[in-house]
């Protein structure tokens, strides 16, 4: 047919009326060369992508995502999905799930990569770069400021610490709610939209593997293959692969012991010089498959255990700040670079170290996402690989669910520091603070399930920071 389907015309009209943006179809290297979209393109909703100018594209991603990227990577992905897929319908939900699954096998923060992906769809590779920078810039600036303020006050300041203590359960609630949003539709059969028990099992087994410290890359790849076999009713090979993972893990533990993050150490940053900081960011960014959570143990081993130029307490503080700020969680590397530069050569070197390690951290994801956009598009459109990405996406749900609970525990319990000084008094105080934190978590979760506006998160962060002055001092 020579005309677009009525549903696409209606979606286009709705988006134009809501945003004031004139929408034009975006040609893609893998799309049909004719004016009429192919059946695959119609199914994936390609013709709903608006063509935005670079300044407009920068402001769109800066305002809608960069400034509101609270709650860590899971919340950021949910925010992008809600706005661009559910509300504005740039692409179909099916295509988003495929894209999300593909980006799990790329290094770097998925939320930033998704912004680059949508930027490429709207205005080519340059649009992808602009969208990525717009998403990252607010968090980078805020982390730079937070690093400087930390160097002046530190977490020993009781007023600063009280606000931060109240923010922790609020952030934990944001991550839990966002995990639910990401899991929605991800555990459904693509054709029937009903919950697929095999995908649920994959998510649960991935959670078990995470608890066993089984490498995340093994789980992602393995369950992608297993679900591909299941979708083709190859039950015996799927069962053999499923059992092989635990047999192999058992043999590894028998001969080598339980896997430890220390095994990631390469010794590439013995001192926090600018060159070493850049290499540390570059290697961590290259190895950050699955997002920031795989970069955290690597930098910890290099800077805290191997290098010894960053204390464990300061490192934990930087992860906590990274969870609070509206930024990709890998922005914690900016803090690490600032502290390393401060120790190596003073304040000027600290700012330079923060910039240089951030460049190293984000360089791989920009290269893979922008330079490999056409290849990634082919992977997204490939129906033969669709079951693999569906299984991989379900496995990712298991990973982020574990992370949500891992963050919840310290957010409620708080720090064990100074417990040995006045054990009885501190135990009472700690129990009281944990109770207050639990209430904050429950209330925050209720608010997040009740309200969905983008300003809700900002209001919650401000209220928590202020209320901490009354609740934890």
Give an overview of the whole structure.
The chain is mainly alpha-helical and 473 residues long. 73% of the residues lie in helices and 0% in strands. The chain contains 19 helices and no strands. It has helices spanning 6-19, 39-44, 54-66, 72-87, 93-103, 110-152, 158-183, 197-211, 216-231, 235-256, 274-287, 292-306, 312-324, 332-345, 347-371, 373-381, 386-413, 423-450, 454-471. Helix 8 (197-211) runs antiparallel to helix 9 and helix 9 packs antiparallel against helix 10 (235-256).
Write the layout of secondary structure elements.
Layout: H1 6-19, H2 39-44, H3 54-66, H4 72-87, H5 93-103, H6 110-152, H7 158-183, H8 197-211, H9 216-231, H10 235-256, H11 274-287, H12 292-306, H13 312-324, H14 332-345, H15 347-371, H16 373-381, H17 386-413, H18 423-450, H19 454-471
Give descriptors for this structure.
473 residues; mainly alpha; 19 helices; globular; Chromate transporter
Would you report the number of β strands? 0
Cα(first) to Cα(last) distance is 69 Å
Strand content: under 5%
| Radius of gyration over all CA atoms, rounded | 23 Å
Largest sheet: none
Query: Structural class of the secondary structure composition?
Result: mainly alpha
Please provide the ordered H/E string of secondary-structure elements: HHHHHHHHHHHHHHHHHHH
Total helices: the number is 19
By oligomeric state, this entry counts as: single chain
Helix content: over 70%
Mean pLDDT: 79
Shape: globular
